[in-house]
């Protein structure tokens, strides 16, 4: 079993090239391990906690320079992310490599020749035998998200995990600075540092679920279980308007048995339910139905007056059922000694904070959300690099309610 909290784009983010090649052997090793386990009908699981980008504005000078450049780099992984999970080439897609292993394992039963099966034929075969999502038995891709509120608005943000952590079989932990990409791992890019921790404390054979017993070690096992408890919301220890403390693990999830089918299924169901709950309240959170990077923001943020740019200094709209609309009368002319006060009616749209927070608390449990693997699936071009270096403070922006 692998537990990862990593940033995994394809290609080198230091260039504008859209090449989907990745020469690092890490993904090849992961896919090869999966192939061997699938072929021998052995249990193999990978839970991948993957960040995709901050929810904030990422196209203009609203950011300070460093944040803006980081956001631009993160945007580059969207077309490349397709290569990792849904790429066109079998050599560059972990999902397609797993699917290839599943087809190869069943080739004799399905009456196939011993030669390679084209990718299109693989997809057709998996669909024919009801195994289109069979790869999900081996790979679960997650994000982390939280929500909160003020007295007048409801907010949500991705929990941006910058650490790089890999835990293998509750026995080995690798903690360091390297990402799984060519820039970090080929040796000719960034300087990286990592600690590989294999301790001798409480090394023993352990039942990890699924009928599997493995040699585990205290540090890696304790770290993995504490991470699960944290992300499942069991370690929330402060009063918050966001995710509330969970008294127990979700139904079916046994933290001590990560390889059990019920644990993996429980985490997957929880993350999908959380993703759906956020989509029920918010317009702009990433989801598979958004075909481009900006689709959600175009729904949630109004245009600036006299501009084609979105006004990201406003509070984003929520789904209609969580908005309150009221008519108010505002002054049109500032009165003076020679003029009378005039006014006009406007519709003020604000958040229904009580109902939105009530729904989120009833339906969001822990921080896991399912990664929307088809989000921005129509976004094929590499985004342009940022041009402005203005500071957020210099713009004098303050959050304000949207007037519709």
Automatic annotation (TrEMBL):
It comes from the Bacteria. Gene3D superfamilies: Endonuclease Chain A. Keywords: Hydrolase, Lipid metabolism, Repeat. Residues 157-184 form the PLD phosphodiesterase domain. SMART domains: PLDc (SM00155). It catalyses: a 1,2-diacyl-sn-glycero-3-phosphocholine + H2O = a 1,2-diacyl-sn-glycero-3-phosphate + choline + H(+). The keyword Repeat applies. This is PLD phosphodiesterase domain-containing protein.
């Amino acid at each position: 079993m692998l537990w990862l909290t990593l940033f995994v784009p394809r290609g080198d983010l230091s260039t504008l090239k859209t090449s989907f090649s990745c020469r690092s052997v890490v993904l090849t090793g992961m896919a090869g391990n999966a192939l061997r386990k699938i072929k021998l009908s052995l249990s193999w699981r990978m839970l991948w906690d993957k960040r995709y980008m901050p929810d904030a504005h990422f196209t203009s000078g609203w950011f300070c320079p460093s944040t803006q450049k980081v956001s631009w780099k993160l945007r580059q992984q969207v077309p490349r992310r397709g290569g990792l999970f849904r790429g066109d080439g079998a050599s560059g897609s972990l999902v397609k490599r797993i699917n290839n292993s599943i087809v190869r394992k069943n080739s004799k039963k399905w009456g196939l020749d011993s030669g390679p099966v084209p990718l299109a034929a693989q997809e057709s075969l998996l669909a024919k035998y009801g195994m289109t999502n069979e790869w999900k038995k081996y790979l679960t891709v997650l994000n982390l998200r939280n929500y909160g509120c003020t007295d007048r608005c409801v907010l949500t943000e991705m929990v941006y995990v910058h650490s790089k952590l890999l835990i293998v079989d509750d026995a080995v932990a690798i903690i360091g600075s390297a990402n799984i990409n060519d820039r970090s791992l080929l040796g000719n890019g960034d300087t990286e540092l990592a600690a590989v921790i294999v301790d001798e404390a409480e090394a023993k054979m352990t039942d990890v679920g699924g009928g599997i017993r493995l040699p585990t070690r205290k540090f890696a096992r304790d770290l993995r279980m504490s991470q699960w408890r944290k992300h499942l919301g069991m370690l929330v220890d402060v009063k918050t308007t966001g995710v509330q403390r969970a008294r127990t693990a979700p139904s079916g999830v046994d933290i001590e048995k990560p390889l059990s089918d019920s644990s993996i299924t429980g985490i997957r169901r929880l993350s999908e339910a959380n993703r759906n709950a956020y989509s029920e309240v918010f317009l702009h959170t990433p989801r598979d139905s958004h075909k481009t990077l900006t689709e959600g923001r175009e729904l949630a943020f109004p245009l600036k007056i006299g501009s084609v740019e979105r006004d990201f200094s406003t509070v984003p709209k929520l789904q209609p059922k969580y908005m309150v609309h009221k008519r108010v009368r505002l002054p049109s002319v500032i009165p003076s000694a020679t003029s009378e006060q005039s006014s006009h009616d406007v519709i003020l749209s604000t958040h229904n904070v009580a109902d939105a927070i009530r729904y989120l608390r009833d339906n969001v449990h822990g921080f896991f959300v399912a990664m929307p693997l088809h989000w921005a699936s129509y976004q094929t071009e590499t985004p342009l690099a940022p041009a402005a270096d203005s500071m957020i403070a210099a713009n004098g922006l303050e959050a304000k309610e949207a007037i519709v």
